[in-house]
Amino acid sequence: MATSINQHQSILESASRFPLPQGLRFSYGTAGFRAEASVLASTVFRSGILAALRSLKTGAVIGLMITASHNPVNDNGVKIADPDGGMLTQQWEPFADALINFDVSCMCISWAIMLVVLKFVEEENIPLGGVNSSAEILLGRDTRPSGRALVEAAKQGISAVIGAVAIDMGILTTPQLHWMVRRRNKRMKASESDYFEQLAKSFRCLVDLVPKEMAKLVDAKFVVDGANGVGGEKLEQLKGMLTGLEVEVRNLGRKGDGILNENVGADYVQKEKVIPCGFGSDDMGIRCASLDGDADRLVYFRLLSANSRSVDLVDGDKILSLFAVFIKEQLDSLSKMTNDKLRNRLSSRLGVVQTAYANGASTHYLKQLGLEVVFTPTGVKYLHKKASEYDIGIYFEANGHGTILFSEDFISSLHDVEKELASCPDCESRNAALRLLAVNQLINQAVGDALSGLLLAEAILQYYGWSINRWSELYHDLPSKQLKVKVADRSAVVTANAETQVVKPSGLQELINAETDKYSHGRCFIRPSGTEDIIRVYAEASTQEAADSLAQAVEQHVKRLLTEKSF
Ligand code: G16
Fold this sequence. Notes:
Radius of gyration: 24 Å
Oligomer: single chain
Domain Alpha-D-phosphohexomutase alpha/beta/alpha: 55-91, 133-185
Largest sheet: 5 strands, mixed
Protein name: Phosphoacetylglucosamine mutase
Number of helices: 20
Distance between the termini: 51 Å
Catalytic activity: N-acetyl-alpha-D-glucosamine 1-phosphate = N-acetyl-D-glucosamine 6-phosphate
Bound molecules: 1,6-di-O-phosphono-alpha-D-glucopyranose
Helix content: 40-55%
CATH superfamily of the largest domain: Alpha-D-Glucose-1,6-Bisphosphate, subunit A, domain 3
InterPro entries: A-D-PHexomutase_a/b/a-I, A-D-PHexomutase_a/b/a-I/II/III, A-D-PHexomutase_C, A-D-PHexomutase_C_sf, A-D-PHexomutase_CS, AMG1_II, AMG1_III, PAGM
Binding site for Mg(2+): 69, 292, 294, 296
């Protein structure tokens, strides 16, 4: 078939321009491929082919984001958004790994990449080379200097697939790109200004439903650390459209501001529990928040004392708890409706999804509220999938990545109930329905989004009239410690049971158990990072000293066992 031959040539010719760096292997980790930017051209080029094939297969728009999120500025990476705006389906990850790692530098195997593609195309029945085949891929990038060249590599990968078109959306936050993909596939307005308008409008709607005396109790001043990344500038743009919120944005990544993610941003504040650069004793008593490099994570914090850099961290677990309390209260209002027919229409399953990193105190608190709490491995791809099984699924990782998902059936019932109650403008059930509808509009349904999460948190604080101190007091975190251990090969660690048990190397879990047993309220696990070349150690105990010492003891075991060649 002529088209097929053209197609083969197209991929072969362009693939030879992007040789795989010698001796390197890339793996599709927690959120796609990530590495030092200078070695990523071939990975990004091939991810372009991958995204085009995914678009052909699904007949829908796919997103390809060039970002390394919380990683240092010299890293970069690729995140791929599926038609619903979520992460690339896990079923395609093995193909992604195979495609990205095939070595075509040697002419004798240059056809091999074609074989990998063709085998997969046949297995998945992808209409590659078909006369009417068309594919559309939205491209976005964060503010990393390497982003522009990598977008060009992605474009070449996409155009190597005949019929595939790349649309370059420029600099975006990761959640904006995921939102756009989802909206385009639903044939809805999907530009950046549509995104800002939707956030501003739904935030306004929530704030309008706040009793005025409550809103007055919340300190208007609020400062956000933009991590010197893309999120700060986007928040600057959005803030002009917001009423009911005074926000100052720092660490915008402008000239003289500092380096992306270096001693700034959500990952730094959450892991180190200290204020980011650009914050100091003048911020004592002020509500502060941090975004990460691509604005898909959010944490809040407040300075503990004017002469220390330590913070009281309000992490993803507490954001989750705030959202859960609010959503549950709205559902409780709806359950008090006297109209049985309407009430029954809204009977819903509310579920909460966490990972092993969730502080034990948060899980205890959520369960005490009567909520169903389930666990998945780290990575929004797992949490998102689990949360979508509920009518309302709230998921958050402690690092601040999360959102609230609503089922279409539940939203449609809410609309019906709201219409039925239209003649009762002040009744609490109608207001509860309106609030939930506004939350569904505000909070990103595709992926965790720091900007939409921040607006929802602010609206809920106004609703309750809560300060950040009051929010932080919802429960007291068990002291915890996280460490990173550099090892030669992080894939030597294999875990099970939502990453709470080490399966390999053998014997390591027993050592962790023995250390953990020494501490009151001790809990500890390790796992290989899927975004950095390290093993992560998490420890929790009844005092900070105990948590630190447990983490350090386990770190030593990891170092020793992973440098021994015997396992
Ligand atoms: C990504 C994922 C998150 C995950 C994080 C850390 O975040 O989207 O779900 O929690 O990596 O992963 P790991 O511990 O495997 O390094 P981001 O914000 O870096 O894209």
